[in-house]
Write a structure and sequence with these properties.
1196 residues, seven-stranded parallel sheet, single chain
Length: 1196
């Protein structure tokens, strides 16, 4: 039995009022105009859903209102599953861009449920005007969805063919919705409507097991029930045989060489292409259909705010037309968009069929098909047949304390007169808080259970999501008047719907990052130096098949070809990709050059490590403050967080709190991509520190960010006795002096400011925590100042660019490091366009954003011409309000401009890169960068991170000057940013940045040479080893300064990963690498468990790889570096044995010989049977050698 929705009892009480009950009498009417305040909307829809079994299609003006309404209705109706959102495309009909797979999947799932209701019919579908006016391909509701259960029999090859036809992409590693991978009898698929990828195991054609898996680490999560699996298509145009044939016929009528012909050629062969949906009117079997013609015949269409909808529909039609006219180069380097219709010949004139329709035409078509068309508007039209709902908007103090006190008094009077009252808040903690406050005001109150109706003699407090309150008039004694007040009415802040937070399994495991090598890539081998990867080959040596990587090194003799090194897969841990210099010279095999380079780097590293360790020792010697465990207030404040925390966020919050509760001063770096919720972690840490009576300094690089954090902190801690102040250039001098005095006497708890906080003369009474945001933006002298605080104060640093500019990083645990890799729920990757500048395109892009009530950042990084650019934009889009912001403006004007933009008084902010640092404006979701070729890579990534921060899809347009050729580096940069548009691409971008620029200015001049010499990975490892050695010395432990040695094992053992078990090279490499890098038997076992989970039961050859990995660990314990076969003997060296152990060796293995000069043991390979039988090999030989090592060295 599903739990009762939270607000169902409240909905029944409101809908019982005769105003809503009377709607039933109007149900037969084909047209009806209702008027009521906005607050009545969810209740009017809930009342209609209770009174009729006919489906209701609710149309709102924009996506945000639709999302909000779905969340509200899911809590008001008796069955949350009976309401669904029908999302609209994020793209326009004629763009060479396809809507995302999850959008299409959600749309098809809704149409499928409407066409085949089954046991759970849809009663309410909420959508936006865009979906209603956009014609769709015919027959989408009848599209076949595949449903799979455990125990089903299904033709495996037929299933794969169906997935390809449904436009799922076959890959070797599933990473996002709409992809599938096949490995033997295991199918990994990520359905478009699922929360997780699904791993389906087949035995022949029977499904034996269905498990959910996480795309981050590819491991399954047994705690999540993934059955049954429902698979919907990824595209709304499926490449069936008739569609392919039609594309082929169209192709014949086109001129050669146009983009359209390449698109049609691919479609004719059944290959899906970006933007093929633009061709739906030409390739579909039948006429296009409107959504209102597809819903069941008896449906009721209800338009909310018809005036807004009419305007929006007209704007959509105009913008769609504008996009058709602006033919421009786009879409991740190359490709043309939109499709050029005007120059098309013959049948391509039919494109206009998929253009947005006018709302009047949709209304006429809907009524003609026998469906009802109702409107609900807050404005009265004065028509005679209009029905007005007798409800009024609820009281709304909006944070005014005097008005809140007056409201509580009114509620007390209302309840004592027999009326009913309800307060709806989003967080459980907030509900308890309101209950306490009502108690203090002597208002009787109770916190309701889920689904409970309002009680008659007290104010009922609900924990749920409702945007606005209302007052019903009441009628007879049975339905006394009801007052509903919401959290937004009380506090004036917008309440976001807290999702039910279905999360992935709680374990955070290592990310899957296969060592993707392509021929020609530079690699670093720990023992031999820098070489070039050539290929991956398989060789058979004495009957045993092994795989090797071939690495080319510099030629030993001049004029000769380069030397080649064959690296066996079990030594892969010795290899890493080279990142560091521009083009390093290859090392020579066997020469001393590489050892010298390494020695010099190690020496330089010791100096850095020494400084770091002094800091570490000082920190551990200094007495820090151990903060108390979480207080009830802490939990209450955290409950009021509007969003579902991601698993990474929760882990990092727990790590930060654990650090604060220890007596050693905290020094933790949080690395997370732009907009991944680092600020919330800072808010919670700051609140925890204040609970212990300590002061908190929040240090940010720019005044704008200080302003923004001040608002965030104040909003999150409203209602708690915490004093928060700002200190930056924008603070007027009198206020600044007062704040500094309050810091000294302890009356202020949290101060948020720029480097003014670090000036001399700033004194704190009891500073307990320093939070540094966007750490990469502070200069060296500021960092020194912060460093001096570190020895006795907890420091929390946050950075979005994962390779901070100093290598002091979190290397080797001097600073703890936490990473946030998961994007917040409902986040979409930012669609990135790169192309030559064109004013038509800029105008079209701006209009598209204004269409959804959004705002635009236009980055023009030249102050001298910024005003001229702003004027040009104002001429291009006359209806937009344009503002200018740059760092050379008067400070007050800059602040007021940005604040006005934040408050939505402007639509476009033409600015310099001042927005790069942490500016968070959720409503700005289009970024246009002029002359993008002049920007650095991490700068472009940071800029792009400013958009797409809310639930809306973000767009980034990076334009380069069309009249100047791009340099190769600029092209590389733009190509990288265009390709890495997935969420959390910061790490990839930062590494590429390092590759493009060399590591020079990242680390300071004296270290860059060493990084270029040995490569970034090895350099980081050297620093780590040096620091560990120093730390061990500081902690009084013995230091073993030896680097992990390479152990070469060359035995007649058939140990490899067969291609028919794992067929993709990069995945085999990844598995080999993990086994080679395992440093204990437990790690070897866990790698084998992971391989089994992902690819099925490993074959014997792969099990032997694990046995070799365990033998290598034994060898390393005994200092052995080589185990190989020469002739009929196994040689083990160096195996240093004192006299007593030599005697033991002779006793246990009489035929063994020991050479003291080379410390080599040679043992004849025993025979498998009697005389004349074959020598031991494979598992028996590994067991024999492992036993020998253990027996000879075992302590008695």
């Amino acid at each position: 039995m599903a739990p009762t929705p939270l607000l169902h009892g409240l909905a029944q009480a409101v809908c019982a009022d005769e105003t809503f009950a009377a709607l039933a009498a109007h149900l037969p009417a084909p047209r009806l105009a209702l008027t009521a305040p906005d607050a009545a909307r969810p209740f009017a829809v809930a009342a209609l859903a209770q009174q009729t079994d006919d489906p209701i299609l609710v149309v709102s003006a924009n996506g945000r209102e639709a999302d909000d309404l779905v969340i509200e209705l899911a809590e008001l109706l008796d069955d949350p599953e009976s309401v669904a959102l029908f999302p609209s495309w994020e793209t326009l009909p004629h763009e060479r861009l396809s809507p995302s797979a999850d959008t299409v999947g959600q749309r098809l799932a809704v149409l499928h449920r409407l066409a085949a209701p089954g046991d759970h019919p849809l009663r309410v579908v909420v959508t936006t005007v865009r979906s209603v006016v956009q014609p769709m391909a015919p027959g989408l509701g009848d599209l076949h969805a595949i449903t799979l259960h455990e125990g089903d029999e299904i033709d495996f090859d037929g299933l794969l063919a169906s997935l390809v036809e449904m436009a799922y992409e076959r890959v070797d590693l599933v990473g996002r919705r709409g992809e599938f991978a096949v490995r033997g009898g295991i199918l990994d698929v990520f359905p478009t409507t699922a929360d997780h990828g699904v791993r389906i195991e087949f035995f022949g054609d029977e499904i034996t097991d269905i498990r959910a898996f996480s795309v981050a680490d590819q491991r399954t999560h047994p705690e999540i029930d993934a059955s049954p699996v429902v698979i919907h298509a990824c595209r709304e145009l499926l490449l069936t045989a008739p569609v392919r044939a039609r594309a082929g016929r169209l192709l014949e009528s086109q001129d050669e060489g146009s983009d359209l012909t390449s698109m049609l050629a691919k479609l004719a062969e059944g290959i899906p292409v970006e933007g093929m949906e633009a061709l739906i009117p030409l390739l579909a079997d039948d006429d296009l259909e409107l959504l209102t013609e597809v819903i069941p015949d008896s449906s009721l269409v209800l338009l909310l705010d018809p005036e807004k909808i009419r305007t929006r529909a007209a704007d959509l039609a105009a913008t769609g037309k504008e996009f058709l006219d602006a033919a421009w180069t786009v879409a991740a380097m190359g490709g043309d968009a939109p499709v050029d219709v005007e120059n098309a010949v013959g049948p391509l004139r039919g494109f206009a069929a998929s253009a947005y329709r006018l709302i009047d035409d949709v209304e006429a078509a809907t009524l003609a098909s026998g469906r009802r068309w109702w409107t609900l508007s807050p404005l009265s039209s004065g028509e005679a047949d209009e029905v007005a709902l007798a409800v009024t908007a609820g009281p709304a103090p909006r944070g005014n304390d005097d008005e809140i006190v007056a409201l509580f008094a009114q509620l007390r009077a209302h309840v004592s007169d027999g009326g009913r009252a309800a307060i709806v808040v989003a967080g459980k903690g907030t509900a308890e808080r309101i209950d306490e406050r009502l108690g203090e005001a002597e208002v009787p109150s109770t916190v309701a259970a889920a689904g409970q109706p309002p009680v008659p003699d007290a104010v009922t407090i609900y924990h749920g999501t409702l945007r606005r309150g209302l007052v019903t008039s009441g009628s007879a004694a049975t339905t006394p008047p009801l007052v509903v007040v919401t959290e937004a009415d009380l506090t004036g802040t917008r309440v976001a719907g807290t999702r039910d937070g279905r999360r992935l399994g709680a374990k955070r495991r290592n990310q899957v990052d296969p060592l993707a090598l392509t021929a020609g890539d530079l690699v670093v081998h720990d023992q031999h130096g820098i070489g070039r990867f050539v290929e991956m080959i398989e060789r058979t040596v004495s009957g045993a098949r092994r795989e090797y990587l071939v690495i080319e090194y510099a030629a030993g003799k001049r004029g000769q070809p380069g030397d080649k090194l064959y690296v066996p897969m079990d030594s892969l841990d010795q290899l890493s990709r080279y990142v560091g210099g521009e083009a390093p010279s290859l090392s020579k095999l066997g020469g001393s050059d590489w050892q010298n380079t390494k020695r010099k780097a190690r020496k330089a590293v010791r100096e850095i490590a020494g400084e770091l360790v002094q800091l570490y020792a000082a920190r551990h010697a200094a007495p820090g403050h151990a903060f108390a465990a979480d207080s009830p207030w802490q939990r209450e404040m955290e409950d009021a967080f509007d969003f579902t925390e991601t698993q990474d966020q929760l882990t990092v919050i727990a790590e930060v709190k654990a650090d604060m509760e220890r007596a050693v001063p905290m020094d933790r770096v949080i690395v997370g991509d732009v907009g991944y919720g680092k600020t919330e972690i800072a808010v919670r840490a700051a609140f925890k520190a204040v609970q212990d009576g300590k002061q908190v300094a929040v240090l940010v690089p720019t005044t704008i960010l200080a302003q923004q954090h001040l608002q965030t902190f104040t909003e999150r801690m409203a209602g708690f006795p915490v004093t928060i102040r700002g200190l930056s250039r924008f603070t007027d001098p009198a206020q600044a002096r007062e704040t500094i005095e309050q810091m000294a006497d302890g009356t202020v708890d949290i101060v948020i400011g720029t480097h003014r906080l670090l000036q001399t003369g700033v004194r704190w009474k009891d500073l307990g925590l320093v939070i540094v945001d966007e750490e990469q933006r502070f200069g060296v002298e500021h960092k020194e100042h912060i460093k001096s605080l570190r020895t006795h104060v907890d420091v929390l640093t946050m950075s979005a660019t994962p390779i901070p500019r100093t290598l002091e990083m979190s290397m080797a645990g001097i600073r703890e490091m936490s990473t946030i890799l998961t994007p917040p729920e409902e986040r979409h990757p930012v669609l990135t366009y790169v192309g030559a500048y064109s004013s038509k395109q800029v105008a079209a892009a701006i209009r598209r954003e204004l269409l959804r009530d959004g705002q635009v950042f236009y980055v023009h990084n030249r102050v001298s011409s910024i005003d001229k650019t702003a004027r040009e934009i104002a001429e291009m889009v006359p209806e937009a309000r344009v503002a200018v912001a740059h760092g050379q403006m008067n400070e007050d004007r800059l602040e007021s401009t940005v604040t006005a933009f934040w408050n939505r008084e402007y639509d476009i902010l033409v600015c310099t890169t001042i927005i790069e640092t942490g500016l968070d404006i959720a409503n700005a979701n289009t970024l246009i960068v002029d002359r993008a070729e002049h920007f650095g890579l991490s700068q472009l990534h940071q800029l792009r991170g400013r958009v797409g921060r809310s639930r809306e899809r973000g767009y980034a347009y990076l334009f380069y000057s069309p009249d100047r050729p791009l340099t190769e580096t600029a092209y590389d940069r733009l190509a990288t940013i265009a390709q890495n548009n997935e969420l959390g691409a910061g790490m990839a971008v930062a590494l590429k940045d390092l590759e493009l620029r060399g590591a020079g200015n990242v680390l300071g001049a004296e270290q860059s040479g060493h990084v270029a010499g040995v490569g970034f990975d090895l350099y980081v490892r050297l620093v780590g080893e040096a620091v560990q050695a120093y730390r061990a010395a500081a902690d009084g432990e013995t230091v073993t300064a030896q680097e992990p040695t390479e152990v070469r094992i060359d035995l007649p053992v058939d140990a490899h990963i067969p291609v028919d078990y794992v067929d993709a090279d990069r995945l085999r490499l990844e598995a080999y690498r993990k086994l080679a890098a395992a440093s204990s038997d437990d790690e070897v076992a866990s790698v084998i468990a992971e391989i089994t989970d992902r690819y099925g039961e490993p074959p014997t050859q792969t099990q032997r790889l694990a046995a070799i990995a365990r033998l290598r660990l034994r060898a390393r314990e005994h200092g052995v570096t080589e185990i190989g076969v020469t002739g009929s003997q196994v040689r083990i060296s160096p195996f240093t044995l004192p006299d007593s152990l030599q005697v033991r060796l002779k006793r246990l293995y009489p035929s063994a010989t020991y050479r003291p000069t080379t410390s080599t043991v040679a043992v004849p390979i025993p025979k498998a049977g009697g005389v004349g039988s074959a020598p031991l090999r494979d598992d028996e030989l590994i067991d024999y050698i492992t036993t020998l090592l253990d027996q000879v060295t075992r302590k008695v």
